[in-house]
């Protein structure tokens, strides 16, 4: 037995060693590295509980599907108890005592403001999924990672809603902390960029009582703006709407718009809170409802009800999805860092003088972990998870409407396409940015009205708009104020009043108003038009209606609607009969250039006809003086169609046909113009130029109280030459007297007044150009008034319709047709070359073409001379001599019974018959003739002479 003990001991030793090695290998294979991660949330509110449940689910499900990961996040939770200091103390405890490598949270922007500094000092990344204030970005801490959206990203979506419904005023209601303050500058600038004014900013304390909230709401109710933007979290937002519903601010005419901070939490509100928010609009980041999201919602709801059975939250919100993705991103980032030294380097500060902040350690993997988180990309529940500039970026916002028990989507907003109805309809190639309300679905507004709220109402403490009207003596057709001393009432009538009444009646809503004259009880004005406009700026009137012109200096105090009358200032002067009694009146129908052109063409046409007829027509032959006289006589006789010379050339006939047409048109036009000058009344203005008024020092007039006085001063008129009128009658009297007799030579006023005056005195006065540009009459309102856009649109509707014509006929009657007669009589009756240059051009081209054809034919016939060896001067003399001779080959020089041969051989003289009245020619030899009908051979350079056989019966 003893011999077996050594073998037994060796076997036991071997088994123990093998067992130890096997156990060590198995332990090494299953070993994971724990990494402490802190969680700082408010666990007594739904947002904190939702965040915590989503974080724990994320890690549990992540590591279940990634069992090969060597690191495991170990959550160290702390409750901040909705306190900024509590959140900072919790973070400090986690860093010092738990040595966490990162912190998920906190839940609010004010708490994050404190934690960012701790994270920077300890190099511990602070990853928040619900701190959205833009002010946190200004701290520029690289260790603060916003795994959520910046509040400023939703501002363009909110402004697009304002553009869609054309609201021009808004009130911002926000919580008084870093979260509320952060969005204010972004929202203010964006609204100003689309001409929307923030009339009031209501700041509510996070710990405000119900009475304080009610008091602030009463202030807002007293204002005219009815569009409210609410930027706060729950439960303050829930209390705000509960009080607003109590005092009647959730009825018709009100518009409430929620930012995403409150819109994302609608699913966490109680049914009573939802009931008080019916009709509210909201914007929130859009998360596609994928299968993964739907499956997660089911799992989350089961787990959340188990963990928090008393919480009525039905489903996770966007913050819960961001918390889930943030936890997954951190788990991935820690794994990428590897099995590094997850420890802290302690501070060397002396314990005797140190504080908690002085002894805080520094994470050894903090910088590497930070870069790992920033570079992490994956497809999360909320969409593509990737950090840009320390925060997430959204691609779309959803516009929702609170209806019934929850919310309903009515549209979307994207940075590229603006407001769209459905995301599936986005054209990826389209760059069109839309803010059309047609792209938004049906909205149930507060109070369920059938119309879109206009965004403002009259303040509840005022019953009617106070409309100031001018008091004036003349031009009562525009505005007339009548006082009834017995009833102590005033009656306001006139063209401007009827236009304003028509405009207000065309508005889609009722606006009560009353007219208040700007004058004393005895009918005297309290000031000029500038003084009246300034009363609106002083808030004594809500608007001014009357013949008030839109000018630049007035627009500094009020806003004008679009004009409803013609614009401009014109000069009116007397007219005189300018019928000419001069002995040279007959020259005036045609202008000087037309006279000269006509005379030149008369001579030119005579010359052309002479050239075409000289060699073939006896009527255009003879001594040079006779031929010259024939040229002038023939051409000018065509003016009365009295020419006796016969035309035998076809080319000449073509020229004359065209010339006869020109002469006919010219003579008829001359006759008509001369008749008009001698019979029609020629009315001409006495002054046609503003410079003439200044140069001659004439007196000029303007209407009392009008801005035209300033205009005349700017035109450098002498103020001592100004005279004032108050009515059309006074103006007519001043113009009739004239400048030299205590009157005026011209008056300057606006076109509506001038047209009214001309319609009453059209035979004596007229308006003279130019018209100086001004914007016409308009209604004035306080600057920034929301009524201006609506009233301006109503002005367009009225002025473009038949109602404006009826109002004008009622006050100004039918326009007198003599104004048209005046305009025609003032136009020039002279006929210029511009009216005839086309005819002269055709005549000239035809005549030149005929000359070219005749010359070509002549040169071709005598080409032997052209191609001969004589000098150029000899050729020219020979061709001139030949051109002066008769063309015996032409049919006018042949005997009646002799056929045409085309030859130029001489024919015997014939005297035994009576020739026709227009004599014909023959060639004779050695028979001298004298007188006008013959020439000797010496006159033609030794060539045979050509003589004419005269009629033996002619004396």
Mean pLDDT: 81
Rg is 52 Å
Q: What's the tally of helices?
A: 28
Biggest sheet details: 8 strands, mixed
Straight-line N-to-C gap:
196 Å
Principal-axes shape call: elongated
> Could you name the ranges where pLDDT drops below 50 across 5 or more consecutive residues?
1-29, 819-828, 900-955
Decide which structural class fits the backbone: alpha/beta
Order of strands, main sheet, comes to: 7-6-8-9-10-15-16-17
Helical coverage, percent range: 25-40%
Counted beta strands: 32
Q: Please indicate the percent range of residues in DSSP E strands (runs of 2 or more).
A: 15-25%
Can you characterise this structure?
By secondary structure, the chain is α/β, with parallel strands linked by helices. Helix content is 39%, strand content 16%. Strands 7-6-8-9-10-15-16-17 form an 8-stranded mixed β-sheet, with helices on both faces. Helix 7 crosses helix 8.
Gist?
This protein has 955 residues and is α/β, with parallel strands linked by helices.
List keywords for this structure.
single chain, alpha/beta, 8-stranded mixed β-sheet, 6-stranded mixed β-sheet
Question: Which helices and strands, and how do they pair?
Answer:
Blueprint: H1 5-30, E1 33-41, H2 46-65, E2 71-79, H3 84-98, E3 103-104, H4 109-122, E4 126-128, E5 144-146, H5 155-165, E6 169-175, H6 178-193, E7 197-204, H7 210-221, E8 227-231, H8 236-246, E9 255-258, H9 260-263, H10 271-275, E10 281-285, H11 291-307, H12 318-337, E11 344-345, E12 362-363, H13 366-374, E13 378-380, E14 383-385, E15 397-403, E16 406-414, E17 418-420, E18 465-470, E19 480-484, E20 489-493, H14 495-505, E21 513-518, H15 529-537, E22 543-544, E23 558-560, E24 569-577, H16 592-613, H17 624-637, H18 650-679, E25 683-685, H19 690-696, E26 700-703, H20 708-714, E27 722-725, H21 728-737, E28 746-750, H22 751-760, E29 765-772, E30 780-782, H23 787-799, H24 802-812, H25 818-826, H26 837-861, H27 863-866, H28 872-884, E31 921-923, E32 946-948
Helix pairs in contact: 2-11, 2-12, 3-4, 5-6, 7-8, 12-13, 14-23, 14-24, 16-17, 16-18, 16-26, 18-26
